[in-house]
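Q: How would the structure tokens look for this protein?
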Amino acid sequence: MTKPAKRRWKIAKKLDTFKLKIPTVKAPYNDRVEFWKFQHASVTFAETTKLCDEIIKQKIDSGHPLLTSMMTTLHIFYGRPFKQRQEVKISEMLVPKDYKDLHDKLIKMRDQIYAHMDVDGLKTINLNSVNKVGVFIRGGQAKFALTMLFPRENEVGRIRDLTNLLSEKTWYHAEKIWHKHFKMQFVPDGDYEVNLAKDNDDFLKPISF
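A: Here is the predicted structure in token form.
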């Protein structure tokens, strides 16, 4: 299911007094892929912000049945804009200096616990592996579980603030590209996607699956 962007841009309104010829907006490949990169990042960070809000609002902490699923989603979503092929990967230079420590921690946990569970991954202060398969015997019955590290509630609030800032920053860069090509252009109502074809300069094309 596609996720709608959290904001809308204004474009020129259709004039009813005469038949308007609808222009095809053209843009070089570099502009289109840069727009895709920043808009994808902005929407992803916005979704991560909403997820953090729900974790705090619903008090999802140790023992909650959704904690592991929501924390996994949080880390995967956060890392996604940074873990792309080079042309659509956003730079870590966008991360504010005050949040660099948190960013590094989120990426490290994403890489070694949530997206990949390395046997020789993160270590405790006693140099024991964080990633364990626990075996719990009760009344002759065995139950199994994975041990995982989770951010504390105050850290979730800080993650929310970081993702909100990153969503705004990446939106700003996407907005500049959009207005460069669509200011005062009429685009009819419809469902479109960013065209990433290198042999066709149309900015948008009808969305298809």
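The chain has one domain: 29-204.

Confidence is low (pLDDT under 50) at residues 12-22.

Upvote if useful.
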